[in-house]
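Below is a filled-in request sheet from our internal design queue. Each sheet records the structural input a requester submitted and the sequence that came back. We keep these sheets so that new team members can see what a complete request looks like end to end.

REQUESTER: design group, bay 2
PRIORITY: normal
MODE: inverse folding
CHAIN LENGTH: 269
BACKBONE (tokenized):
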């Protein structure tokens, strides 16, 4: 971390709450979006163009290698090797700001690689392709995939990225904890993709307490889920693409031929 006491400026006061918020905002913008402009600062803080310039220059004094100005696009572009100077980047915190890029079903979360999560977020927000090195299984060798990500999903204990796979020519889920490395997203999407209907479609999943559960289990579950009776349905609203994860979290495997040992079973709508 660099010493923020070195930040001085005619407008940005390093000791003020506002000055800190402005500098942190610049860092979050350029880290997660990969690109930024003065207008975003003006819109966020209601300041003048001159004040916005001072904020950016103050941040560049603090972190000179974070970004550079491009005359071609007239915006600041992120350095792929940028390091944050205020706080470690947090994907969960960032996703709270954007309801359209996360489907959320909460458990200890598997560790995330900050470079991987950053590159994927930049690819989503700039509509670019990215190459990932993916570990499909414990004993399998890592595979290289070229993907076009468009959203993140959270399934209780882990995140995945929803993306178009150029090799499979279909939408797939890739677990973030299994992505070992990614390229910096450089290439813009060159063709229009089909709609991800399973992501855009919302469903209601209806489940109820397993009729074969013991009376003690039934009573406990009724208390846990505030149900009026053992036949009262639990309704979960989720994206169609996330329905298998919902059922897994509830202990249901609709594809299994083995007897259902879960506390729950599917209920009619």
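RETURNED SEQUENCE:
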């Amino acid at each position: 971390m660099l010493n923020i006491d070195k930040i001085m400026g005619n407008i940005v006061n390093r000791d003020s709450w506002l000055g800190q918020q402005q500098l942190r905002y610049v860092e979050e913008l350029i880290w997660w979006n990969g690109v930024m402009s003065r207008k975003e600062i003006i819109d966020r803080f209601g300041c003048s163009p001159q004040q916005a310039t001072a904020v950016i220059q103050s941040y560049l004094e603090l972190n000179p290698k974070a970004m550079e100005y491009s005359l071609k696009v007239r915006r600041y572009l992120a350095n792929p090797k940028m390091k944050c100077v205020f706080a470690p980047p947090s994907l969960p915190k960032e996703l709270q700001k954007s309801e359209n890029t996360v489907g959320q079903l909460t458990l200890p979360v598997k560790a995330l690689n900050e470079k991987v999560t950053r590159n994927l977020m930049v690819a989503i927000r700039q509509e670019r392709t990215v190459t990932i090195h993916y570990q499909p299984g414990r004993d399998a060798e890592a595979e290289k995939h070229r993907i076009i990500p468009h959203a993140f999903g959270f399934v209780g204990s882990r995140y995945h990225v929803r993306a178009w796979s150029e090799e499979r020519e279909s939408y797939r889920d890739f677990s973030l904890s299994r992505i070992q490395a990614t390229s910096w997203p450089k290439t813009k999407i060159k063709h229009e993709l089909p709609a991800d209907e399973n992501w855009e479609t919302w469903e209601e999943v209806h489940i109820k307490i397993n009729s074969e559960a013991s009376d003690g289990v039934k009573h406990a579950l009724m208390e846990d889920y505030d149900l009026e009776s053992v036949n009262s349905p639990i309704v979960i609203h989720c994206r169609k693409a996330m329905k298998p994860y919902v059922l897994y979290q509830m202990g249901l495997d609709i594809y299994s031929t083995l007897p259902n040992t879960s506390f729950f079973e599917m209920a009619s709508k």
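SHEET NOTES:
- The helical segments are 17-33, 38-45, 49-62, 91-95, 114-126, 197-200, 215-224, 243-249.
- The first strand starts at residue 35 and ends at 36.
FILED BY: M.R.
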